Amino acid sequence: MKKTLISFCSILLVFMAATSLCAGGPKYLPDYPGRASVKVDTGNTGDYKLNPAEASAYHQNLRRLADLLLAQPTLSRPRGINIEGVIGAHPIGSFMNHPPAPSAPVPGSGQFYYQDCLEIDGKPA
């Protein structure tokens, strides 16, 4: 029984080593010039009953914030990664118990997504 288990394990190790040597997965490109972008989402401001002038000013402030974020050294020239972000008004449906008061500032939120620059089939993806 013990010899059978040792034989099985050795065959399994050989198979795993051969698989890792033969498998051609995506190759990471650490020096590839990545890019960074931030999208300003304008969809949720209607929930806050802003007039057109207020909504426009809010979106301009978000765009200015996005430009300031993209000017940061870590985001201005990424190498080996692509960064995509989105910022916008916080969805009013996410306030379960206490929706914001009409006179309160419109809260915002955002996220950044990082993706490695990879070479797939000889082309950067």
Characterization of this structure:
The chain has about 120 residues and is α+β, with helices and mostly antiparallel strands. The protein has one domain. It is built from 3 helices and 6 strands. The strands form 2 sheets. A 3-stranded antiparallel sheet has the order 1-5-6, with no helix packed on it. A hairpin with a 2-residue loop joins strand 5 and strand 6. The protein is elongated, with a radius of gyration of 25 Å. The two termini are about 50 Å apart. The model has no long low-confidence stretch (mean pLDDT about 80).
For the largest beta-sheet, the strand count, sense and barrel status come to: 3 strands, antiparallel
Task: Please give the radius of gyration in angstroms.
Answer: 25 Å
Query: Helical segment tally?
Result: 3
Provide the β-strand percentage band.
15-25%
Q: Note the quaternary state here.
A: single chain
Structural class given helices, strands, pairing?
alpha+beta
Q: Order of strands side by side in the largest beta sheet?
A: 1-5-6
Global shape: elongated
> Which range best describes the helical content: under 10%, 10-25%, 25-40%, 40-55%, 55-70% or over 70%?
25-40%
Number of domains: 1
Distance between the termini: 49 Å
Order of helices and strands: HEEHHEEEE
Key terms for this structure?
125 residues, alpha+beta, three-stranded antiparallel β-sheet, 6 strands, elongated
